[in-house]
Specification:
Length: about 200
């Protein structure tokens, strides 16, 4: 009698273990970045923190840039867990802003570590497509009557206003706390959205 096939189970188990290892490596990088600078992050340190070999780290992330991309993806996942799915309307965008800001400041040291170096900023910049898609989807109604150039400038301004860099700037230069920043950004985003929907008010954009 032939032995029962176990390959599908074994394959699924290996896949799950590989995913757990990858997650452990990313979490190790997150922990190290939260206490240091992205420029000081070494694969050896990450391996030691994660309890895996350096070879295993490189098997999952061929370069430090790839690992930082993994950290940025982890940040996006954490924000999604705290805030929920991306907003689909301008009203939802306004309503979720305070929660996004609160979640941002929960992992503030990690953000600052990423933004402190060119490598970290480049990793963050590589995800800009998803953020622009979120803006264009949420403000589709406001954008639909604009010409292409106006729509692009509007999206750029909205991206700037709602950026994590902007929130950190408001804390550092104006001493605002997370609640104040959330309320201020809500007002700014609502005002921009209202103006964008009115052809007379958006004249000159």
């Amino acid at each position: 009698m032939n032995a029962p096939a176990v390959r599908p189970y074994s394959s699924s188990l290996r896949s799950e273990q590989a995913e757990q290892t990858r997650d452990r490596i990313v979490r190790a990088a997150v922990d190290l970045l939260s206490a240091a600078d992205a420029g000081d992050l070494s694969m050896n340190e990450v391996a030691g923190r994660a309890g895996v070999s350096v070879r295993t780290v490189y098997r999952n992330f061929a370069t430090r840039d790839a690992l930082l991309d993994g950290v940025v993806a982890w940040i996006g996942d954490q924000l999604g867990r705290r805030v929920g799915p991306p907003p689909s309307t301008s009203t939802e965008y306004v309503e979720t802003t305070p929660r996004v800001i609160a979640a941002l400041f929960e992992i503030e040291p990690l953000y600052r570590a990423l933004f402190a170096t060119t490598t970290g900023r480049e990793s963050h910049r590589r995800t800009k497509g998803a953020r622009l898609d979120d803006i264009q989807r949420a403000f589709e109604t406001e954008i639909e009557s604009m010409d292409e150039d106006q729509a692009r400038r509007f999206a750029a301004v909205m991206h700037l206003v709602s950026s994590s860099n902007g929130a950190l700037f408001m804390k550092d230069y104006w001493g605002l706390d997370a609640d104040e920043i959330g309320r201020a950004l809500q007002w700014a985003i609502r005002t921009l959205a209202d103006a964008a929907g009115d052809p007379k008010r958006r004249r000159g954009l």
